[in-house]
């Protein structure tokens, strides 16, 4: 039995350099899992769209596909835009089983990537001392995701033994400017901002500029095409692929398709 196709689902951007990050993730995933059919779809601004990928999968006679949202703030359920995109293509391909996996979410191991990006930023500006940190996210995600974002901020604070302020780009919490200023009120002067954003889209660019204007001595690059994102995507794919198997007729006698084994050794989304 052929394993379900894996479709990385990204939000999309008008900036080709931003979109290239996700294309690189797809190529790396395909290299890591050559037995899988790995595709990429964008929800807006870029091609291929979900509709185009649905057509490509149908032409390739794919019977099943799992769409994995590359969303690092939502933990339990994909965005309405992702749900609507998949609902729109299902009637076009009634013979194909399509599953929307859980998003990547604010997983604990991604804090390592934030630290790596921040160390690079600090090295570039020759900063050797910090007394405050801002953990900046694009949005609050879903309720479970927001609870985990707060947990990640607490873990980051405990790890670095520094005060940490949370900042939200969508207005659902304090802004990055307010977060930096809150640390300054506490007497902190050497403040850095770690960005928990997937890529350098217009939201990240605007927030990074605000952080610098507020006096942050360093701002990290976004998560980018780090392989740990692909490890998470594979975990989400594996769970959703097993759900597809559970939906098969009980007497089908099929074994789990190759490539859908549950990966071990990673934090779960509940961590």
Keywords:
271 residues, alpha/beta, 4-stranded parallel β-sheet, 8 helices, disordered C terminus
Strand order of the largest sheet: 2-1-3-4
The residue fraction in helices comes out at 40-55%
% residues in beta strands: 5-15%
The helix/strand class is: alpha/beta
- Order of helices and strands, N to C? EHEHEHEHEHEHEHEH
Overall strand count: 8
Helix tally? Answer: 8
User: What form results from the Cα inertia axes?
Assistant: elongated
Separation of the first and last Cα atoms: 33 Å
Structure description:
- The structure is a single chain.
- This protein is α/β, with parallel strands linked by helices and 271 residues long.
- The protein is built from eight helices and eight strands.
- The chain has helices at residues 16-32, 50-59, 80-89, 110-124, 143-160, 176-185, 202-213, 227-246; strands at 5-10, 38-42, 64-69, 97-100, 132-137, 164-168, 191-196, 218-219.
- Strands 2-1-3-4 form a four-stranded parallel beta sheet, with helices on both faces.
- α1 (16-32) links the parallel β1 (5-10) and β2 (38-42).
Concise summary:
The chain has helices at residues 16-32, 50-59, 80-89, 110-124, 143-160, 176-185, 202-213, 227-246, and strands at 5-10, 38-42, 64-69, 97-100, 132-137, 164-168, 191-196, 218-219. With 271 residues, it is α/β, with parallel strands linked by helices.
């Amino acid at each position: 039995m052929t394993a379900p196709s894996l479709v990385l689902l990204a939000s999309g951007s008008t900036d080709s350099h931003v979109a290239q990050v996700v294309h690189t993730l797809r190529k790396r995933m395909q290299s890591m899992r050559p037995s899988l059919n790995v595709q990429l779809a964008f929800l807006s601004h870029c091609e291929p769209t979900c509709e185009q990928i649905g057509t490509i999968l149908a032409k390739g006679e794919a019977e099943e596909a799992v769409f994995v949202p590359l969303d690092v703030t939502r933990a339990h359920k994909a965005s309405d835009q992702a749900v609507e995109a998949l609902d729109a293509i299902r009637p076009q391909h009634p013979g194909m089983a399509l599953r929307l996996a859980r998003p990547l979410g604010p997983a604990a191991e991604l804090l390592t990537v934030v630290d790596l990006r921040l160390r690079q930023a600090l090295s570039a500006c020759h900063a050797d001392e910090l007394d405050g940190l801002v953990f900046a996210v694009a949005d609050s995600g879903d309720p479970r995701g927001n609870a985990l974002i707060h947990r990640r901020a607490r873990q980051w604070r405990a790890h670095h033994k520094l005060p940490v302020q949370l900042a939200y780009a969508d207005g659902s919490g304090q802004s990055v400017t307010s977060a930096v200023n809150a640390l300054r009120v506490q007497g902190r002067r050497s403040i850095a901002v770690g960005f928990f954003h997937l890529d350098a889209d217009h939201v990240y660019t605007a927030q990074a500029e605000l952080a610098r204007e507020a006096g942050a001595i360093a701002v990290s690059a976004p998560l980018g095409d780090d392989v740990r994102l692909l490890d998470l995507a594979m975990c989400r794919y594996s769970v959703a692929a097993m759900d597809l198997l559970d939906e098969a007729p009980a007497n089908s006698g099929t074994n789990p398709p190759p490539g859908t084994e549950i990966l071990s050794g990673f934090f779960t989304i509940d961590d």
